[in-house]
Amino acid sequence: MQVTEHVHAIKIPFSLTTESGIVVERFVYSYIICGKNVCLVDCGVASSEDVIFDYMKKTGRDPQDISLIVQTHSHADHIGSTPAIKELTGCEVAAHGDAVGWIEHPDIQLRERPIPNFNTLTGGPVKVDRVLEDGDVFDLGEGMSLQVIHTPGHSKGSISLLLSPDNVLFSGDAIPLVGDIPIYDDVTEVLSSLRKLRDISDMKVLLSSWDDPIEGEGTYKAIDEGIEYVKKVHEAVQKFSSVSWEKVLEEIGLEGIPVNPLVVRTFEAHLKVNEDIS
Asked: Which PANTHER family does the record associate with it (predicted)?
C-alpha cells in the first residue's frame, strides 16, 4: 500500500511452528522509499524478494532501482531476503555496528538466540557495506534524507529511521505492541529508546515492522502505550515469575499463548532489573 508520496508498505505474512506443533501466524512489514533510486527498510523473511519485486513492478518501479537496504536490526524475519535482493540488484546493505555480526553470520545468531524455524526464515549470510551509528544521515536525493536513531532494547543493534521532510518514522521492532508477545533483550534500554522516540517533534506517520501504519496523534499514543506495556510486563514478572511463566502471560492478557524461547528471554530480562522502572 502507498502510505505517503514517497513511501510504500508491504505486509509480508509468514508462520512459525512451535516445538509442540502449534502453527503461529505472523507478519512483518518491509518498506519502500521511492526517490531517484529506491531504498528498502528491511526485507522480510526468506523468499520475500518475490513479493517485494512484484509490488514494485505494479507501481511502475524496476527492482534494479534498489540501491540501498537499511536493516532496522538483525533478526531473521527482517534480513531473510536481504542476501537474494543484494545479489539480484547489486545494492548496498547498511546496519548498525551492533547488528553486523548476526547479519553476516546468522549461524552465530541461531546459537545465541535460538528460535523456531530459524533456517527457513533467513536466507543466509550477507555482507554489510555500511556500518551505521546514531545520528548518521542518508541523502536519498530529491530533497529527502534518512536519519539514523539508535534505539536498542529489542536488540543491541536496533535502529529507527526518520525520513525528512515527510516526518515518517520507521521504528522497526522498537515499540512493543500491546496485546502481542513482548520481545526484547534489555528493559532499561527499551524504555530509554521509547522515550527518545517520544521526543521527536511533529511526527506525521509511524511505520512499525509489526503493526499497521499509524498517522497523526496516534503515533505518539502508540509509543505511550508501548511504555505502559513494558511497565505492565515488569510488574507481572516481579509478581508471578515464582509461580510460572504461564501466569505472567495470563496477567498481561496473553492467556493461552505458548511459552517460547523469546517470551522467556524477555521475562528473564525483567528479572535482571532491580530498580523502579516507572
From this structure: METALLO-BETA-LACTAMASE DOMAIN-CONTAINING (PTHR42951), METALLO-BETA-LACTAMASE DOMAIN-CONTAINING PROTEIN (PTHR42951:SF17)
Are β-strands 144-150 and 137-141 bridged in parallel, bridged antiparallel, or unpaired? antiparallel
Q: In angstroms, what CA-CA distances link 46 with 49, 53, 178?
A: 8, 13, 27
Q: Phi and psi of 257, rounded to 5°? A: -75, 130
| CATH entry, 7-228, from 3.40.30.10, 3.50.50.60, 3.60.15.10, 3.30.450.20 | 3.60.15.10
Domain ranges of the chain: 7-228
DSSP state of 2: B
- Residue pair 172/78 in contact by the 8 Å Cβ criterion: yes
> Percent of the chain having pLDDT more than 90?
88
Provide the pLDDT confidence category of residue 260 given band limits of 50, 70 and 90. Answer: confident
**How far is Cα 144 from Cα 35, in angstroms, rounded to an integer?**
8
